[in-house]
Amino acid sequence: xxxxxxxxxxxxxxxxxxxxxxxxxxxxxxxxxxxxxxxxxxxxxxxxxxxxxxxxxxxxxxxxxxxxxxxxxxxxxxxxxxxxxxxxxxxxxxxxxxxxxxxxxxxxxxxxxxxxxxxxxxxxxxxxxxxxxxxxxxxxxxxxxxxxxxxxxxxxxxxxxxxxxxxxxxxxxxxxxxxxxxxxxxxxxxxxxxxxxxxxxxxxxxxxxxxxxxxxxxxxxxxxxxxxxxxxxxxxxxxxxxxxxxxxxxx
Length: 251
Ligand SMILES: Cc1cc2nc3c(=O)[nH]c(=O)nc-3n(C[C@H](O)[C@H](O)[C@H](O)COP(=O)(O)OP(=O)(O)OC[C@H]3O[C@@H](n4cnc5c(N)ncnc54)[C@H](O)[C@@H]3O)c2cc1C
Hints:
Layout: E1 21-32, E2 35-41, E3 55-59, E4 68-72, E5 82-88, H1 94-101, E6 108-111, E7 128-133, H2 138-150, E8 157-163, H3 172-182, E9 185-190, H4 203-210, E10 218-223, H5 225-238, E11 245-249
Parallel strand pairs: 7-8, 7-10, 8-9, 10-11
Antiparallel strand pairs: 1-2, 1-6, 2-5, 3-4, 3-6
The structure holds flavin-adenine dinucleotide.
């Protein structure tokens, strides 16, 4: 007698099936002692399609049960087959050890098509606040470059970017340029530099002050869990609704 169960294919949980293809490392740039920028290119494709804010999965030759890692694309879609990743070294991390120690210009990685829902709306007509620390800045750089280039940003945008020292501020020139050209409210917040004339301490102190009047805004948070949990708690306490808070969690 056939049973329903026989018709169900049971497979071990492997996560979604992506097809992987060769991605070539074009350039490796030391941004800080613990962050490298990787310019990648998909040979054999005219365009690597992605939306600003999406991420790529890379399958690494590492001794781990899970060999895939995700990386937000830090560049804007330019209609080419090139894009940039911004990767922070994780102590004892397997994929980041591989990226930092083995990968050089000309190396081939296995990458998949870009995915993710952490993207801008078609038109930004409500105030926007980006909050990140360290490499959590990657999708925001992509969204801001793309959003300003395409002229879809019609409301004020603030970027609260927490780091320890001035030398840790990734893509600083880009954000300063956006401040001058488009009026981006750029707040680099430093927690360990006494002689810094800008905002000091933890990033949370500053956006909570900035939005103390609880005016309507959409918040985008990106990075590691500890910072995101705190930010979400602060925003909830301030009275912002869950639907006003969009999150890209790295761990
Ligand atoms: C959607 C998405 C986008 C991402 N985008 C980026 C990106 O743009 N840039 C980037 O650098 N990373 C990004 N990550 C994180 C990335 O996928 C890897 O998790 C990271 O590079 C560590 O991989 P690993 O193999 O070196 O470490 P693993 O060997 O996987 O991890 C070692 C251990 O360290 C822990 N750990 C990982 N990161 C940290 C940390 N920062 N501090 C303390 N402990 C940590 C892990 O939980 C694990 O227990 C993203 C993750 C997701 C889910």
